[in-house]
Amino acid sequence: MLKKDKRSQSKMGTVYAVGVGPGSQYYITDITRKIIQNSDVIAGYKYTLKTIEDLLSNKEVYEITMQSQEEIYQKIKAGLGNKTLVVPFTGDVNFSESEVVDRLIEIFGDVHVISGISSIQVAAAKARVPLDKAKIITMHITTSVEEKKLELQKALLDGFSVILVPRPWPKNAEKNFMPSEIALYLRKNGFDTSKIKVHVFESLTNPNESSFVGTTDELEGKMCSDLTVIVFNQNQLQSYVNF
Question: Which end of the chain is more exposed for a tag (fewer CB within 10 A), N or C?
Fold first, then answer.
């Protein structure tokens, strides 16, 4: 049997996909901070890179967009060698980012996934809606959201609270599904939106964080930023003394 020439084997570097929290540096976990500090290459979206900007000194940094990410990932792969690549994601890498994580695995093979704090967790806490009594839905996908819309209807009809990430798509009105469109959709599908309590959080954990509390009908015509989380609050208090 011929022995393999170790010199001819090219070792792929280490690749991490990490969650860096909703936006404030206070929400970056210690493990994620350490991984970024010990990395060589960083590739992320502009907003995400802004969140970790104090950790980027002496790093090879790539700012990606939806249009450029494939080209940049391929470029990084070609020159990665034994370096460590970190791809940071806003919030928790395990929520609403599966399309990108799957592609990273296809390109780089073994990808270490490190969870972070999601805006849905922060929104749930602020609205005092427990995650174990709510349905969590993201419309932030590139494929059709029709099944997600039906999931939203069913959850509300079944009496669940819903924590929802809408879909901003300003260049295509048909794909844009933000709070105003969601409120209109629910009303057109027979919901009395004047009786559904709702919280809308924008730019959570950031200095310009804002919130709205009211009823769903009030969302029609309301403009919201890309960094929005909606909580439909149907929570009923159930303390341990009731059991």
Answer: N
pLDDT at residue 146, as a whole number: 94
Least confident of 138-147, 189-198, 218-227: 138-147
> Which tens digit of pLDDT belongs to each residue from 126-146?
999 999 999 999 998 888 899
Cα–Cα distance measured from residue 112 to residue 34, given in angstroms and rounded to the nearest whole number: 14
Domain boundary among 64, 96, 114: 114
Strand partners, 44: 63
Q: In whole angstroms, what is the distance from residue 141 CA to residue 145 CA? A: 7
What is the chain's mean pLDDT, rounded? 93
pTM of the full structure: 0.86
Q: Give which of 159, 137, 156, 158 is closest to 148, Cα–Cα.
A: 137
- 40, amino acid identity: D
The H-assigned helical ranges of the chain are 30-37, 46-51, 69-79, 98-108, 119-127, 146-157, 179-188
State both tokens at 161.
């609270």
How far apart CA 185 and CA 193 sit, in angstroms, is: 10
Question: How does DSSP assign 135-150, residue by residue?
Answer: EEEE---SS--HHHHH
